[in-house]
Amino acid sequence: xxxxxxxxxxxxxxxAVIGAASAAMAPxxxxxxxxxxxxxxxxxxxxxxIGGAIWLAGRRYAGVTGTITSSEGFAxxxxxxxxxxxxxxxxxxxxGALGGFxxxxxxxxxxxxxxxxxxxxDPSELPRAMLMWRATTQWVGGMGVIVLSIAxxxxxxxxxxxxxxxEAPGPEPDRMTxxxxxxxxxxxxxxxxxxxxxxxxxxxxxxxxxxAVAHALTTMPTGGFGTEANSLNGFxxxxxxxxIAFMIISATSFALHFRAWRRPxxxxxxxxxIAFISIVAVAIVIIALGTWSLGNGIESRVRDAVFTGVTxxxxxxxxxxxxxxxxxxxxxxxxxxxFLGGMAGSTAGALKTxxxxxxxxxxxxxxxxxxxxxxxxxxxxxxxxxxxxLVHGVVAFFVLYVGFFVAGAIxxxxxxxxxxxxxxxSASASAVGNIGPALGELGPTETYAGLGVDxxxxxxxxxxxxxxxxxxxxxxxxxxxxxx
Length: 484
Known about the structure:
The chain has 22 helices and 2 strands. The chain has helices at residues 4-23, 26-34, 38-62, 70-88, 90-95, 102-112, 128-143, 145-152, 160-167, 180-204, 209-219, 237-250, 254-262, 266-269, 271-291, 298-314, 328-337, 353-371, 388-415, 421-432, 453-467, 471-478, and strands at 380-381, 384-385. Strands 1-2 form a two-stranded antiparallel sheet.
């Protein structure tokens, strides 16, 4: 039995997240009104009203809850995201979009987790209000609806740090101000500003205002939901190069962006940033060498290689080429890229550059101890000593990450015996890495619509596990309070 105080804290956090999601339906409602899609407008208004009522009821029930503990913070994040995804299906259900319940649930899970996997073969067939809600789910999920709630809902109080620690894609929340709420607000304003800037740059090209806004909302969170059937392949080179630049920006630590605003040298002084850019460069070179004979011109070949390398490493999931049709060597390379990810504190998924760096240094230190057993050395990252606690955490995370990837692939193989090994393995890696398109029969020109209910539910859970970086979901399922 969960203690009353703990239950109240969980209620106030989950209902606060639902309240934030209800407010996030405003852009879709405005879009529907502009295009005269009144059925969709009513559906969104009904869902927002239900969310607002849940939020008010949660506040009334919980009252003053006090500060949450570390374990409660981790569990609350996982629980809030699961509840959020179920709530996010309501606009689709009320509007009769996507059909049934499982498809809307899968699409919403892919949205909030910024995975980009879809059941839609042609997104343009959806009403624009629903497309805007679909894009908004990725935008809200990108920086984290929990962090948004901390920034706008003071009732979470000092416990906001524990929530951020549970959701932050790095070793610890990176405070830029003494109060974490101020830090969250600054990061969100930076996130909003970059989104607006991207939309303005895109609309100058060959995108309509609606397309520019929708793609800005899905590029900044490295999400990958597009508005057209062929992703970005039908847009101009200008548009594709702009998206490439902003995918890199989005996969870079937002705290680093904030520091570099006043001190641009912060970029080149960050070893993690240099490592991230180096990984992207290596991926681009590998793809360029493997696809050089497939393009029609030098610029086209270079652009497709750069775009594919960036979108796979950052986990954005956009496409300008059908990489699933490439040779086995490139397919294996792309599968490896799915595990890499961007910097800590960015909107990218997967393992992250800082974990790869610590794993690399740990392996080097182990080899050094074998060769020079009497030498005492200290591991350093970004010029600072790496605590054993952090090393153990990174190694444990890596083992769990690979474990969930393998478990997902095995389960998908049982659920979908007709799929080949490449499709099964890449789909699992894509889900846990929050990428979207996979390889084989689930490549960038295909959808997940043909999968069974079990497969969609399992992949949706993998998306949540990957987005929350494993520990919150594990703690939610294993916490001692469930056994009391």
